[in-house]
Amino acid sequence: MHLKHFFGCVVGAHLRKCLDKCKITKRDEVKGSSLCKTLGFSRPFQFYQCHGFYCYILVLAMHRVGSAGNSSNSARKSKEKKLTYVLNDADNTKHCAGVNCLAVLKSPGPDGCDYLFTGSRDGTLKRWGLSEDHATFSATFESHVDWVNDVVLTGGNTLVSCSSDASVKVWNCLSDGTCARTFRQHSDYVTCLAAAEKNSNVVASGGLGGEVFIWDLEAALAPVSKSNDANVDDCSTSTNGLGSSLQNTSLRPISSSNNISGHANQCQGYVPIAAKGHKESVYALATNDQGTLLVSGGTEKVVRVWDPRTGSKTMKLRGHTDNIRALLLDSTGRYCLSGSSDSMIRLWDLAQQRCIHSYAVHTDSVWALASTPTFSHVYSGGRDLSLYLTDLATRESVLLCTNEHPILQLALHDDGIWVATSDSSVNRWPAEAHNPLKVFQRGGSFLAGNLSFSRARVSLEGSTPVPVYKEPSVSIDGTSAIVQHEILNNRRHVLTKDTAGVVKLWEITRGVVIENYGEISFEKKKEELFEMVSIPAWFTADTRLGSLSVHLETPQCFSAEMYSADLSIAGKPEDDKVNLARETLKGLLAHWVSRRRQRFGSQTSVNGEIPSGKDLSSRALTLSRVEGDGNLENDSAVYPPFEFSAASPPSIVTEGSQGGPWRKKTTDLDGTEDEKDFPWWVLDCVLNNRLPPRENTKCSFYLHPCEGSTVQILTQGKLSAPRILRIHKVVNYVIEKMVLDKPVDTMSADGAFAPNMPGGQHPVVGDGSLRSGLKPWQKLKPSIEILCNNQASIVDIWNITYETTHA
């Protein structure tokens, strides 16, 4: 019997914000007390104060006992794929969440345009055309389904990105934003990349799973056979010219050794080299120009040095006392710079295998480094909001500028430096990278110590450095990220608040903002909008990407219905029930359905057959049912309350039977997507008008006269109703039974109350007995008021008391 220990953490909402603020994007999956030490705690369970919030952290030790032949868990039913749509009411040319990474593409010609690439926590990358004094939006690269954590350029026009969705994606950086290939070898968030400047084939990736992969791009981008689609997601029908762009590059040999581990998820016979050795999360990578040396760092607080051609370890450098967040190698591969959460910058001589200098410049974690072309000076930024320039030889340092948000990454461009922060905007500051002495001539420099930040501040004699530059030379503005939301009781509206304090009201069935309240109290507005209404929770929402993401999961999403009259749908009988999820899906995929009909014809699917000729799985058809709302035809019309804007279309995030999760604007769907791309239940709903089976839940209740009334009790037993019931049906029953003394036996069987039913069944308040116009007595307009929990439903004669049961 083998015992394994698994450690995880349950983190409160405030702690989640703190960790995000600290750029810890996910719990570090490390063993034992290392997890607590990584987050700064001395014990597995501790009550502590962090950035002004009192939070709890609980580290749970879970045990799993495995024995030979024990397969009790192997037959557990897998969870159905969900569909998410991401809403956006702002300018799509701007990021709406913090920018994690930067890359600059220099034009080979003097008259060409330079480009800046930005990767954001909103899950997208954007390309910007650069000029002397401004940046112009050029394209959006949308395919990642979570934060984009790093991006590198290689081979002239090849862009490689990594994300918290555990994928590495390859793009043609000069294309319209189409993903060329997706690799899913990592088991957890992919946090960092490194590319060799003079060997366009070599790219390394590292992540929270402790894995470091070295990729040969030419081999990895070879055409993928259909049999390997499950392992490699070919995001387009071609590689968008990437193959031809790499043909003239030198292909380094891929050798094998005992240190190389071929990952289980192989693609087309290609196996990325796995540099094994990290036991904990990897946060930083760097390589020399030729791609013959690779360094890595992370929560183990050591710098590991690898030979990327074989994946073998060459050395391990100790000195930092906290997580290593940034690494640089000079062009020769002899010197290495490292920045750490211990606030120190260290210079290593790899030939001597030791640290030769330490620079105590920052007062908090160092998260970003960039060096001048000669590797004589280093630019550094981090959690203390400050950007410093330090002379590595003289130890002289100067504060270039201060930001309003923590600095996440730096990228030099000519004599300026682009700065990415946890804000959605990106700024370029003067840097004098080709002649940094000009900056020191402005004065305000100080000598960097070699002690920790607490001692370094003392060495500054309490003086605060004055920044050289007050304003950036160029700014790329972003939009405010949504940081708070509340789903209202009507289950169609969501109240949000962004980082600027602006409160908005969203209608999620149309994906639009219906009210912008400006900078007001979120809590007060939430109270004002409270409605005494009960609708099942058919969706969930979050704001992790800086915008509102709505999640639909089967079968829960199909639990909510409303009457067409309450939705103000013209031309539809007022007592017709409308399933909110079904109509929302139809609205979301209206463009896709239209494009599909153009490709495959306008025939209607009536036998569970997709127009392309492919069948849904037998399981899907078996578990489906036609929604019985009196309208059995495959109604493809989209009602106005479910029409999504074409000007600001939402993005679909979902996953089919193959290829892994993907993301696209609804208007970018071309109609070729099928069951390999969408969950089966989405296709079954939109194409075949089928919904999953659900529990036939009824609500039982009693009708009693109000206190002081002399009216006799209507019935001796319970009354029952379907999941939703318009109150006028109850009023009509009261009038027919008591006011007009109408015999209940004459009520229609499909519609309302039927007392003395055989088998002890309850009388039913039904769905449709009152659809055929007004009854004669309704013209009398009697005054009737129904009270439920002392809330008046309609005009004080009757009191209705609910007792919920399930039929």
UniProtKB/TrEMBL annotation:
Belongs to the WD repeat WDR48 family. Residues 651-670 are annotated as: Disordered. SMART domains: WD40 (SM00320). Keywords: Repeat, WD repeat. This is WD repeat-containing protein 48. WD repeats lie at residues 141-172, 183-218, 275-316, 317-358. GO terms for biological process: double-strand break repair via homologous recombination. GO terms for molecular function: ubiquitin binding. InterPro entries: WD40/YVTN_repeat-like_dom_sf, WD40_PAC1, WD40_repeat_CS, WD40_repeat_dom_sf, WD40_rpt, WDR48, WDR48/Bun107. Signal peptide: none annotated. It comes from Sesamum radiatum.
